[in-house]
Amino acid sequence: MAGGWLPVWWTLLLVLASMAGEAVGRFVVEKNSLRVTSPPGLRGVYECAIGNFGMPQYGGTMHGVVIYPKSNMKACKGFDDFDLSFKPKPGGLPVFLLVDRGDCYFTTKGWNAQSAGAAAVLVADDKLEPLITMDSPESSGTDYIENITVPSALVTKKFGDDLKKALENGDMVNVLLDWRESLPHPDERVEYEFWTNSNDECGAKCDMQMNFVRNFRGTAQVLEKRGYTQFTPHYITWYCPEAFVLSQQCKSQCINHGRYCAPDPEQDFDIGYDGKDVVVQNLIQICLFRVANETGKPWVWWDYVHDFAIRCPMREKKYTRDCANGVIKSLGLDIEKINRCVGDPAADEENPVLKAEQDAQIGRGTRGDVTILPTLVVNDKQYRGKLEKSAVLRAVCSGFEETTEPDVCLSEAIQTNQCLENNGGCWMDNANNFTACKDTFRGRVCECPLVHGVKFAGDGYTHCEASGVGRCQINNGGCWKEARNEKTFSACSHEVSEGCKCPPGFKGDGIKICEDIDECKEKLSCQCKECTCDNTWGSYECSCGGSNMLYIREHDTCITKSSTSSLGWTFLWIIFLGLALAGVGAYAVYKYRLRSYMDSEIRTIMAQYMPLDNQETPNQHRPVEHADI
Ligand SMILES: *[C@@H]1O[C@H](CO)[C@@H](O)[C@H](O)[C@H]1NC(C)=O
Ligand SMILES: *[C@@H]1O[C@H](CO)[C@@H](O)[C@H](O)[C@H]1NC(C)=O
Ligand SMILES: *[C@@H]1O[C@H](CO)[C@@H](O)[C@H](O)[C@H]1NC(C)=O
């Protein structure tokens, strides 16, 4: 059993359903794995038990080197007193401090290790036994527990001894702590339960619960509303052994004739509220959840629990049914329905709702009995570690099948900051500040980014480039682009496969450089005898000698009267002028003659060039069009 989990009020007769009768309590020690990568003699994968304090990195891993302190091996004192520090040197691996079990709380060891700069604490058991769960104590003067952020793990005595031996030999012990398989992550919805209690006067644990509800509420509600999670709250109840049902103790701590009990909040029957008041409030909270769930709004439970703790605290003597009803009303829930569900606490009969809670307490499947309060269960496995927003969110997130986790899992709140150093080893465009490093709860991933709606493609490590439609909008797709005299040329093509290609009239790699091609000098165009070549940026101009010649770009040639036929443009112009002079009478003659001139050669050439010339110089062709009619 876990050290220190047995409640003090155990002595007050009450029995946990999960401990009843023949059903022997089954507590499951939740584990993560520890892989030794060096020295070779120790290489392998070992199990360790996740401590119920600090922050296990659910879904993730941590690399480090093991150090065993020369003194203060049990870490019961601060390491400052011994002039020891375990802060890694720049560029060095984080330190996992190995300490011995015994003499003080596990949490004290964890806190001292963390304060000395260790990144995790490994506690070596001091006896040969199966792994146990290291829990946090329920005593005063342990405020530091809230501040423990390093993960903690218990290792067996045997393995602890092996580690120490290797260190004694001067070996460097490299290990990987791995929580990736600590929780099942089968699909795209996470089912989780929170085993809690409405009692608000139980010291640090109750404060922690309330802080958790306050901080996690918003996230829990968003996850639930969007269908990412199915959350169910649960309440532990005890029962009174038959023989004591009529005793004063059971009467003040139980309802329904000793069937459902809770320990007295003050552990004093004469003052303050009794256990039975707590059971009734717990019952109201379960019933509220059921009614809210029926109306399709299970997340209202978070509002109720949050508001109730603020509006109806024990210390203000407001922990009453009346006060609870006020909160229910303000949330707009059906109070009659909730009252029917609560039933008559004085009646000697079963309450189906509380009966179901007692049954659920008993472990099933992979879960194990619920005996630590509060307890969080994620995908049917108990969560271990601090009850704190980011630690719990990390655990919930690790319960999603990889890549189906919602955005909130990739947010800053639970990032690992692995991108801060060397950009996590991922691709980066320094000039534009684009990076492929994404900080997630699973550790960093190198994934080409999405910038202003444009997806980058590549391996994420050495190479990413804008892709798809719109790629040219981002940094011109990484291609050359230049503007001169109101003319702009770009080497970016929207077809990704084409990459960067200099536009016609330019040559170069398309990325950094595209140079104008001097078509004249390089004798690429405008090579006819009569031509005059004039290079321009990105193009050239070619004119043919004499005003009666036309340059045909595609064929890089000039056509003149003589080169087309003996009846060229000039002749047509003469005809036209002749027509103008001859008037209507000459019209028939003109038509007749034109037809005869349009021999097959002219027709072919005109058919080829008309569309082009048509747009640029329509007037020149009016005679031809006209002639066709
Ligand atoms: C824990 O952290 C809080 C806030 O960060 C701080 O005020 C408090 O002093 C810390 N407690 C200890 C024991 O260091
Ligand atoms: C809440 O409602 C869902 C769906 O309507 C159902 O599957 C689930 O069992 C309900 N939970 C409880 C505790 O009634
Ligand atoms: C780059 O972007 C990050 C976050 O997007 C920002 O924190 C950082 O200051 C930027 N750096 C530069 C040089 O713009």
From TrEMBL:
<dbReference type="Pfam" id="PF25011">
    <property type="entry name" value="VSR_TRX"/>
</dbReference>
<dbReference type="Pfam" id="PF02225">
    <property type="entry name" value="PA"/>
</dbReference>
<keyword id="KW-0106">Calcium</keyword>
<keyword id="KW-0653">Protein transport</keyword>
<feature type="domain" description="EGF-like calcium-binding">
    <location>
        <begin position="516"/>
        <end position="559"/>
    </location>
</feature>
<keyword id="KW-0732">Signal</keyword>
<comment type="similarity">
    <text>Belongs to the VSR (BP-80) family.</text>
</comment>
<dbReference type="InterPro" id="IPR003137">
    <property type="entry name" value="PA_domain"/>
</dbReference>
<dbReference type="InterPro" id="IPR056858">
    <property type="entry name" value="VSR_TRX"/>
</dbReference>
<keyword id="KW-1015">Disulfide bond</keyword>
<keyword id="KW-0325">Glycoprotein</keyword>
<keyword id="KW-0472">Membrane</keyword>
<keyword id="KW-0968">Cytoplasmic vesicle</keyword>
<dbReference type="GO" id="GO:0000139">
    <property type="term" value="C:Golgi membrane"/>
</dbReference>
<keyword id="KW-1133">Transmembrane helix</keyword>
<feature type="transmembrane region" description="Helical">
    <location>
        <begin position="567"/>
        <end position="590"/>
    </location>
</feature>
<dbReference type="GO" id="GO:0030665">
    <property type="term" value="C:clathrin-coated vesicle membrane"/>
</dbReference>
<dbReference type="GO" id="GO:0005509">
    <property type="term" value="F:calcium ion binding"/>
</dbReference>
<protein>
    <recommendedName>
        <fullName>EGF-like calcium-binding domain-containing protein</fullName>
    </recommendedName>
</protein>
<keyword id="KW-0813">Transport</keyword>
<keyword id="KW-0245">EGF-like domain</keyword>
<keyword id="KW-0677">Repeat</keyword>
<feature type="signal peptide">
    <location>
        <begin position="1"/>
        <end position="25"/>
    </location>
</feature>
<dbReference type="GO" id="GO:0006623">
    <property type="term" value="P:protein targeting to vacuole"/>
</dbReference>
<keyword id="KW-0333">Golgi apparatus</keyword>
<dbReference type="InterPro" id="IPR001881">
    <property type="entry name" value="EGF-like_Ca-bd_dom"/>
</dbReference>
<keyword id="KW-0812">Transmembrane</keyword>
<dbReference type="InterPro" id="IPR018097">
    <property type="entry name" value="EGF_Ca-bd_CS"/>
</dbReference>
